[in-house]
Amino acid sequence: MIHKTVNIPPLRHLAIIMDGNGRWAEARGLPRVAGHQQGVRTVVEIVDECVLQQISYLTLFAFSSENWGRPEAEVETLMALLLEFLASQRQRMLQDGVRLRVIGDRERLSVKVRNALDSAEQETLSGDKLMLTLALSYGGRDEIVRAARRLARKVAAGELAPEEIGATEFNANLDTAGVPDPDLLIRTSGELRISNFLLWQLAYAELYFVDAYWPDFGPVELRLALESYRQRRRRFGLTAEQTAEGEGLSNSAS
Ligand code: FPP
Fold first, then answer.
1. Is 19 a catalytic residue?
2. pLDDT tens, the chain, 254 aa long
3. Is 82 in the pocket of ligand 1 (CB under 6 A)?
4. Is 67 among the catalytic positions?
5. Structure pTM?
6. Is the Cβ atom of 182 under 6 angstroms away from ligand 1?
7. Ligand 1 pocket test target in 24, 26, 36, 74 with most atoms within 8 Å of CB
8. What is the set of domains in the chain, with CATH numbers?
């Protein structure tokens, strides 16, 4: 009997909904801010592990459009932690070849945060190991609306015909333009939702839900998720026979 070797290409793009910071803190009788602080430590560990695992793109849901509705003090803490993260990780990102990129509605962020993000993006432009995308003030529906507006403006300016708008053109007008779709989405804290994250881009992503709160999620848990991904068979709407024949489709990102 001839055994066919199925070549599973490595995962290129990992997206994560980092959930459960508040519950992690509450379970310990600590203020919510302690959960977010611990959450930043997890971010640092997971970025390192992604570099180690040769994952090319990591997208983290750091602050949603809806998170603006949280108590002002919590929003301020999250923004302060973001600024601290950018300052403390700058050197490390440069050393490790990490390129930072931000998606979301920047206009709602303070000038101070925007400037810090702009500088970090500029300084890390040449990072070619891992593209770390932070989704900030981000909502999937917002992003789709922004893309539709960009396209409408181009049509109105006579630069584009409506017939030219297809999935490729649409993709190119999203905040994530140029980045391949996520292969795997992880959500921590046991919630089974995608909560307005990368609605367009997650169309064919494999989903992985884990009970651990984000502060308790570490390299070991990440490796388990990657192992689970490697066991999956991605069919992209085709039959199992078709994807077995076209080995390239099995677990390849497209
Ligand atoms: C969800 O926990 C997490 C957030 C809303 C923010 C995620 C932010 C960080 C991990 C820190 C900042 C990030 C960077 C990149 C510096 P939750 O507060 O919704 O937890 P809960 O559902 O248990 O209340």
1. yes
2. 444 445 456 799 999 999 999 999 999 999 999 999 999 999 999 999 999 999 999 999 999 999 999 999 999 999 999 999 999 999 999 999 999 999 999 999 999 999 999 999 999 999 999 999 999 999 999 999 999 999 999 999 999 999 999 999 999 999 999 999 999 999 999 999 999 999 999 999 999 999 999 999 999 999 999 999 999 988 787 877 777 655 444 443 44
3. yes
4. yes
5. 0.92
6. no
7. 36
8. 13-138+181-243 (3.40.1180.10)
Q: Which residue has the tokens 């502060």?
A: 215
CA atoms within 13 A on the CB side of 112: 8
Please give the single-letter amino acid code of residue 142.
D
